[in-house]
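> example.struct
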């Protein structure tokens, strides 16, 4: 069921960030204590996950939207991509954590050196590939995540990398709210009253 009627592109960017914060706060509040609702394997995983960090990272987006970042402020540009990339990674991990039992029984679960890769150490590249292989997200989302991933990885680089523009970052923040909406609507809740809302 779609609880979000407003077009994200018609919202001010500060309202977009407020809604991201609200959604991640509500997701933390519900899923950090999922015993009795989620399967025991998922509840145990969620109880030790740092969903509070997702909320903190969501709030930090305000730092980047409060005033435009200059094209030559490379440190800020790298850090705002790290901020957004970490949120995307955390959201994908949350989704798989909630569906952890299904993940464990999936023939395509991610392996490294013939061992199952646990969600808490999974990298964004692995998550992105899994979501596309299982058709949990479309090819357009894959390209969007890859773009953020490449820009975020500039934090490790010594060589030149494309950091995009400030407007591109703001566009990606809007798309992140859309991703949150899509994945939140696919999560199992006891009834509609528990579904996190963005306003």
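> example.seq
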């Amino acid at each position: 069921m779609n609880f979000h009627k407003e077009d994200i592109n018609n919202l001010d960017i500060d309202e977009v960030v407020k809604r991201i914060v609200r959604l991640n706060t509500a997701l933390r509040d519900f899923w950090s204590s999922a015993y009795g609702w989620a399967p025991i394997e998922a509840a145990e995983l969620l109880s030790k996950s740092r969903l509070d960090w997702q909320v903190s990272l969501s709030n930090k987006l305000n730092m980047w939207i409060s005033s435009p970042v200059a094209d030559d402020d490379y440190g800020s540009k790298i850090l705002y991509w790290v901020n957004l990339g970490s949120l995307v990674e955390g959201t994908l991990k949350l989704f798989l954590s909630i569906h952890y039992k299904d993940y464990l029984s999936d023939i395509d679960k991610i392996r490294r050196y013939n061992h199952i890769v646990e969600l808490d150490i999974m990298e964004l590249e692995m998550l992105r590939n899994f979501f596309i292989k299982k058709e949990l997200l479309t090819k357009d989302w894959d390209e969007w995540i890859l773009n953020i991933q490449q820009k975020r990885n500039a934090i490790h680089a010594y060589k030149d990398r494309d950091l995009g523009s400030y407007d591109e970052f703001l566009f990606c923040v809007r798309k992140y709210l859309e991703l949150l909406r899509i994945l939140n609507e696919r999560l199992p809740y006891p009834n509609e009253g528990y579904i996190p809302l963005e306003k």
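> remarks
The chain is about 60% helix and 0% strand.
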